[in-house]
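[audit] Reproducing an earlier prediction to check determinism. Same input, same settings, fresh worker. If the tokens differ from the archived copy the diff job will pick it up downstream; this log only records the rerun itself.
[audit] input (283 residues):
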Amino acid sequence: MAPKFIFKKKYVYYVLFLCLSLGVHYILRSGLNLLLVTEDIWPEVEGRLDPFGFNHIVAVAIGELYVIGLTSAIKFTVDFLIVESKNRHLSELQYKTELKYLKAQIQPHFFFNTLNSLYALTIKKSSQAPNLVLKLSNFMRYVIYDTSQKKISLLQEIDHIDNYIEIEKMRYGDRVTSNVSINGNIDGVKVVPMLFLPFIENAFKHGLKNNDRMELSISFERSQNELIFVSKNNYENQSNSEKHNGIGIKNVKRRLEILYPKKYTLNIAKENNEYSILLKIPV
């Protein structure tokens, strides 16, 4: 009952309940001790003192308050640890649920873009259509199986990025030139699936919007315990009303906040008709 009064901020009721409890406890303890055990109910004090006296009541009450304080501290500590554990569990569950939602949100996005590429090639009756279907199959395998894992090797992710770039090149032909470079030892480096692809997709989406050609440069660098990802592409300045960042970029930012809270660096710059991404994450 006492914790309920405190949590509900009914402090007056708590004090009254405490005083009543101490009074009942004192009467029962001292009365039974006097009737059944001994008339000298305060042997540790020199001289004989009458029971139910003021000094005896205060002494017993202080002793019981010590006990109440200790047990209350233990109770509140245990309750706090239980609540903290539940909150941590709920927070982890919330993050996992949101990550699944973000992943589910971004996967169809890539499928639609790839299908648009396939549609464009079939309209042209291009001989590259069968090859695109094969690459699309590999991409679907990646989305269905690899992205179900928490992390995959960086080399696998780079392979899928290369695959995606090749798919887009089939669509745009020689309008696109690209370069993917790797610096440092990335063997054994694990990354979250589909973390970098939205940046690549964004480059194709906006880099060719008002340009005849696009030059795309991508680099991965392992620096001690940090992975540095850089993406650069040319683009035409757009009106202020037109936003360059789509839902994919917002998606990535939220995933980064969940996966690497205050442990990542993301810089997006648009200067001299160049759009650049700099992302640093711990590995």
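[audit] rerun output stored. Observation attached for the diff report: The helical segments are 2-7, 11-37, 54-123, 129-144, 154-172, 197-207, 247-259.
[audit] end
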